[in-house]
Structure formats: C-alpha cells, structure tokens
Amino acid sequence: MPDQVTVFLENEKGRLAALCRTLADATVNLSALTVADTASYGVARLLVDKPQEAVEALSQAGYRARLVDVSAVEIPNVPGSLALLLEAFDKAGLNLEYAYCFGSGKDKVVVIFRAENVEGVEEIVEQLAGYRLLHSDDL
Of all residues in the chain, what percent are helix, strand and coil, respectively (each to 5)? Predict the structure, then answer.
C-alpha cells in the first residue's frame, strides 16, 4: 500500500506555498496533491517520493503531518472507468472515506482512495473491476 502524507493547514495566505517549500528544501518530490478546506483549516493529502522524510521535515517546520495508508488503482482514461471501479466497491460493500485522481500519462488515471476496511480490496479491484492495485514503487 502506498503511504500518503496528510497535513493539517491553517487556512491562511501562503501556507500551502510554505508547505511546498519545506518539502523542496528537504529534497522531497511531490507527485500528487489535493487540498480540502473549511473556514478555519485545510487538509492537504500528498503523495511524495520519500513519505517518512516528508513527515519529519514538515513536523520540524511546525506542521501537523502524519502517514496514512491508502490504496491506489490505475484505470484507463476513458468514460466509465471510474464508475466501473466504484460500482465494484459498492457491490462488495466497501465504503470509501475519500478518493482523488491524477493523470498517469495520456491513457491512464491513478485513483487514490482510503476505505474503512481494506481487506479484500485487491480482489475487488482485480476480479470485480478488472483493474490492478498499485504499490508504492508503482507510483
């Protein structure tokens, strides 16, 4: 399973730029980022090449950062691919806490998700949806 870095950010001007600078200064390469916000704070979810080093650098810089296990699936970049995956999850009774996607070349999309119970995810992804679960080194 890939490790995602989750960071709580104050909803203030410049905080995301400062977070990215902290990672850059620690020579951590960012490959995916999503930010959800509320009126007072945001939650940044990051995929990076060195997750443990990212958490350490961010924590030393005063951020609340932690590693979170997520799952990743590569799907074709065609209409209906995500629907097929989500329908397989629904059929198997798997509830997603959150998900986000990013392009992986012109023909592929990577779906990152966190589920309540990951037991059987590989079987759901491969047998019900016909896709392949990715591992950290695939990203």
Answer: 30, 40, 30
